[in-house]
Specification:
Number of strands: 14
Strand order of the largest sheet: 13-12-11-10-6-9-8-7-14
CATH topology of the largest domain: Dihydrodipicolinate Reductase, domain 2
Number of helices: 10
Mean pLDDT: 95
Number of domains: 2
Strand content: 15-25%
Low-confidence stretches: none
């Protein structure tokens, strides 16, 4: 093969998608994570943004991200006007209570949207956005980055292949400690103000609970049918729900136990998933993301990782930015999710088709989750089981 033949045989990578950030200031909790994740696989480029309502923070963030001042905008309307001719999508990284109006404005202007979870704070808003997406033929993807971990995707494949037999039980928990921590002087460490404003659905549920619903849906494809839940305030901020426990009956007889809290001292971010089937079980812990424990009916206990000979998903080249034994983590999982969003967005832009991906979540997935969180809030208020509408 001549050098020219060799060059001709090289597959040209997909074009980079140009995005603008709304929110995500350089010093914010999510800004640099999203910036790193979108560019890790060379699928996106940050080309514009309105990073903060504070003019100085907005300008400083844009410059830190390497943008020219002409690419930094004062508000969403300016960003949308720029996006019409220069961007492929807007990434919304603002607090949840701002999302509905911002997403509506973008979709109404024909701009594809990638939005940080939780998409909205009520099922009514989710239904409204669903109507907008369908009416405008728009694109809306919501980031659930934990589903990007290779071992969770391996576990999804294992479940679908019948490796655990019929699923009987799932336990998911996400304990954190932030609402009980104190500083060196013994004073409570105060989180961002929006985290201390509860609506009917507690902000804790919109922050953590949405992840756990999506995790169950992602791994099992089952749907919540009825729930019973409690909500408590144990931490430094009385009246703010900081602990939720829930039992849920899912379709196909799956029992689900859910717990999330911000008052579990010693837990930085203790996301843990346990699946129990009739023939096997699996446990995955986010703090050891490269390993999954598998258990069989015969008493076998196996540590499964990207190098395991039976790996069908986690050892794919796209997940092996470096060989097994060199742990990938949270930002890589984010990047895996964004890789799939890029494929979906290109399908929408270039072919005008609605994306179909088991790895990208839209407003329909969000609606089920918000309905479940509303049912949990109702259950905690009325101290009884609550049934969910399911189509």
């Amino acid at each position: 093969m001549t050098s020219q033949d060799h060059l001709a045989a090289i597959v040209r990578p997909p074009r980079k998608l140009r995005v603008g950030f709304l929110g995500g200031a350089y010093e914010s909790a999510v800004g640099r994570v999203h910036r790193t994740a979108i560019e890790m696989d060379q699928r996106f480029i940050l080309a514009a943004g309105c990073f903060s309502r504070n003019a100085a923070t907005n300008l400083a963030s844009g410059l830190q991200y390497g943008l020219d001042e002409s690419q930094i905008f004062r508000d969403l309307s300016e960003l949308i006007a720029h996006a019409r001719d220069h961007l492929d999508a807007i990434v919304i990284l603002t607090p949840t209570n701002q999302h509905h109006d911002q997403v509506e404005q973008c979709l109404g202007a024909g701009i594809p949207v990638i939005c940080e979870k939780a998409l909205v704070s009520s099922a009514a808003h989710a239904r409204a956005l669903k109507d907008t997406v369908e009416r405008e033929g728009g694109f809306l993807a919501v980031t659930y980055n934990y589903t990007g971990y290779p071992m969770l995707r391996e576990l999804k494949h294992l479940v679908e292949a019948g490796g655990l037999g019929r699923l009987q039980q799932i336990r998911i928990e996400m304990p954190q400690e932030g609402f009980l921590k104190v500083d060196s002087e013994g004073k409570p460490m105060k989180p961002q103000g929006w985290r201390l404003q509860d609506g009917f659905v507690p902000t804790l549920s919109l922050d953590l609970g949405v992840h756990l619903h999506m995790m169950a849906k992602f791994l099992t494809k089952e749907h919540p049918l009825e729930v019973v839940a409690t909500g408590r305030s144990h931490g430094n901020f009385p009246g703010i729900t900081d602990t939720v426990s829930c039992l849920a009956n899912y379709s196909n007889g799956l029992d689900c136990s859910i717990w999330y809290t911000k008052t579990a001292l010693g837990q930085r971010n203790g996301l843990k998933v346990e699946l129990y089937g009739e023939r096997g079980a699996a446990i995955w812990i986010q703090e050891s993301p490269e390993n999954m424990m598998l258990y069989s009916q015969h008493g076998e206990k196996v540590v499964f990782d990207r190098a395991s000979p039976k790996a069908a998903v986690a050892n794919l080249g796209r997940y092996s930015r470096f060989k097994a034994g060199h742990p990938a983590g949270f930002i890589e999982a984010f990047a895996n999710y964004y890789h799939d969003v890029a494929d979906a967005l290109l399908t929408h832009i270039d072919k005008g088709e609605r994306y179909q991906s088991p790895y990208v979540f839209g407003v329909d997935d969000v609606l089920e989750g918000i309905e479940m969180l509303e049912a949990m809030a109702t259950s905690a208020l009325n101290k009884q089981w609550v049934s969910l509408r399911h189509e």
